Amino acid sequence: MTLKLRCEDYGFECQFEIDEEISVNTIEKLQKHFEEEHGIDYTVEAVKQMIQNRGHSLDSIKK
Ligand SMILES: [Zn+2]
Q1: Could you tell me the distance, in angstroms and rounded to a whole number, from the CA of residue 4 to the centre of ligand 1?
Q2: CA 26/CA 34 separation, integer angstroms
Q3: Which DSSP state fits 23?
Q4: pTM score, whole prediction
């Protein structure tokens, strides 16, 4: 399942977007982005929650 997520959708003025198969790497990429670009330290759980809120199941996450 492909995740499409834009920073803009979360109220950031930011062009960052993700459009890829969800994997552990996706979560790390999002965490890194939020921390480096926005100074927000989201936990893995928080990021997973964001993804789930987009209607994605985390069962499909590939290791
Ligand atoms: Zn951003």
Answers
A1: 14
A2: 12
A3: B
A4: 0.86
Q: How far is the CA of 28 from the centre of ligand 1 (A)?
A: 14
Helices 44-53 and 24-38: crossing angle, nearest 10°?
Answer: 110
Domain extents in the chain:
2-60
Tens digits of pLDDT across the chain (63 residues) = 789 999 998 899 999 999 999 999 999 999 999 999 999 999 999 999 999 988 888 886 765
Ligand 1 centroid distance, CA of 1 (Å): 22
Question: With 0-12 CB in 10 A as exposed, 13-18 as middle and 19+ as buried, what is 55?
Answer: exposed
Residues 6+ apart with CB under 8 A from 30: 5, 18, 42, 47, 50
